[in-house]
């Protein structure tokens, strides 16, 4: 890669954003300790949070900068153990940012359910539902493959006995959508206390997409990926 093709200002900005959103992961209870990870794509490079450094102790210099081939070109720490999953998502989709959480609500859901169904129309930010990817060890190629398979036509996946992954066009939107996913899971759990939830149909969800597109609601309209 030629030096001239690297947008240094954009990479620095992405690294700063990753430091601040890492702290938000803890504050919003989407992860504990050093768990979870975040990344941003800048051209052909990926900036990603490091392994084994507490979010509140992570500095801009710790954030790793990787090529898609897996070469670390900057960052003084070791890359996140879930690098294969992040790389796979960037290779297979048009994602510009990936947020991986270990949220309590979604881990609990993953132990019992095969998917998060359409309990609210905002689920179209992801697809018609969000599937649970069967358990495989953290950091494994099998986990990366299973997650990428789902991420081809969904903007989120729930990882059994593990957490969740969201992809989007920006770190800010991916993070907001991680919070939305958590909220949807909470609504679903509460609805189960009342009885059998009513789930939105595919045609109702398509109607939502059409209306969002007409009103130019970006967060919803850009989620039309399914045929
Ligand atoms: Zn994880």
What order do the helices and strands come in, and which of them pair?
Layout lengths: L7 H20 L9 E6 L2 E4 L15 E4 L4 E3 L8 H10 L4 E5 L2 H7 L4 E2 L13 E4 L7 H11 L4 E4 L3 E6 L2 H24 L7 H13 L3 H4 L6
Parallel strand pairs: 7-8
Antiparallel strand pairs: 1-2, 1-5, 2-3, 3-4, 5-9, 6-7, 8-9
Bound molecules: zinc ion.
Can you give me a brief rundown of this structure?
By secondary structure, this protein is of the alpha+beta class.
Counted by DSSP, the helix tally is: 7
Strand order of the largest sheet: 4-3-2-1-5-9-8-7-6
Could you give me the name of the CATH homologous superfamily? Answer: Class II aldolase/adducin N-terminal domain
Q: Can you tell me the overall shape? A: globular
Tell me about the largest β-sheet: 9 strands, mixed
Bound small molecules, deduplicated: zinc ion
List keywords for this structure.
227 residues; alpha+beta; L-fuculose-1-phosphate Aldolase; 7 helices; binds zinc ion
How would you characterize the overall build of this protein?
The protein is of the alpha+beta class and 227 residues long. It has one domain (3-221): Class II aldolase/adducin N-terminal domain (L-fuculose-1-phosphate Aldolase). 39% of the residues lie in helices and 17% in strands. Strands 4-3-2-1-5-9-8-7-6 form a nine-stranded mixed sheet, with helices on both faces. The chain is globular. The mean pLDDT is 93.
């Amino acid at each position: 890669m030629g030096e001239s093709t690297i947008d240094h200002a954009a990479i620095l900005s992405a690294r700063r954003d990753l430091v601040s959103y890492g702290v938000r992961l803890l504050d919003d209870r989407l992860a504990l300790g050093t768990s979870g990870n975040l990344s941003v794509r800048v051209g052909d490079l990926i900036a990603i949070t490091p392994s084994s450094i507490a979010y509140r102790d992570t500095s801009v210099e710790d954030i790793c900068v990787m090529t898609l081939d897996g070469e670390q070109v900057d960052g003084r720490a070791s890359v996140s153990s879930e690098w294969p999953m992040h790389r796979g998502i960037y290779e297979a989709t048009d994602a510009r940012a990936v947020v991986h959480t270990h949220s309590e609500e979604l881990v609990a859901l993953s132990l019992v359910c095969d998917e998060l169904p359409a309990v609210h129309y905002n689920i179209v930010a992801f697809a018609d539902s969000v599937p649970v990817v069967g358990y495989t060890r953290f950091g494994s190629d099998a986990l990366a493959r299973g997650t990428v398979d789902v991420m081809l036509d969904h903007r989120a996946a729930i990882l059994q006995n593990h957490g969740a992954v969201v992809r989007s066009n920006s770190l800010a939107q991916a993070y907001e959508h991680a919070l939305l996913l958590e909220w949807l899971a909470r609504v679903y759990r509460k609805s189960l206390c009342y009885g059998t939830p009513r789930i939105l149909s595919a045609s109702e969800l398509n109607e939502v997409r059409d209306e969002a597109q007409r009103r130019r609601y970006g967060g919803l309209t850009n989620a039309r990926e399914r045929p």
